[in-house]
Amino acid sequence: MSAPPVHTSCVVTGGARGIGRGIAERMVARGHRVVVTDVDGEGAARTAAEIGAAAGIAHDVRDPAGHAAAVAEATRHGVLTAWFNNAGVGDDGTLSELSDDAVRRLVDVNLMGVVWGMRAALEAFGEAGGDVVNTASLAGLGPVPGYSLYAATKAAIVSLTMSGDAETPRGVRVHAICPDGVKTAMLDAQTPGGLGNLLVHSGGRILTVDEVADEAVALVGSHRVIRAVPGWRGGVVRASALAPSVSARGISLFAAQGRRALKKSAGA
What we know:
By secondary structure, the chain is α/β, with parallel strands linked by helices. It has eleven helices and seven strands. Helices cover 51% and strands 15% of the residues. The termini are far apart. This is NAD(P)-dependent dehydrogenase (Short-subunit alcohol dehydrogenase family).
């Protein structure tokens, strides 16, 4: 008598919409029993039902206990082999402009949410190993005025990903996807004339959710630790980090380029 098939499960945080939903759809298509989590529990459940995921649950990534609950739900459906720390917030503004609440939200959701998620996933992976994919940002690879604290949280995720991957045992891999601006509700909510928003639009075409979700899922099973999307833009941002005082002088030029791009798209 043959043994029953072993099902694999996966957790996608912030999966009710946007990049998270795109990732969840692709992992379902790969045959994983996907658990969609989101601070919007109703949205998570609705998305799970629409894409054929195993479950959709409410989950505030700022709470370590919420990650334990996500592990418990995922292991009900199969062996946990993939975890996507995708939940995040995108408050824009200079460091002095941000409210105290925005500062706490950025650090607690973007950074600590990933910390708790990584710890939960790494503890839960069994002998089969697994992959953690963290959603960072191109902003985490160099100076991005207008997104100072947001960029700092994403830079911390990049650093944590590299160190975490080096710490993990054989069979466990940690990755970070670092996309440029993506057409999501988060981007739409940015301050229209804000410096950060202008810089995002200075780099050419805004990415689609499908493009970023494809790249994030492609990291599973690979040994690529950091993936910038698009790659050329990642090179530009990394170069600016080597000489921030020099690159700062070009900020006004990039902002003007972003302003022109926004005007063009508004008139299209």
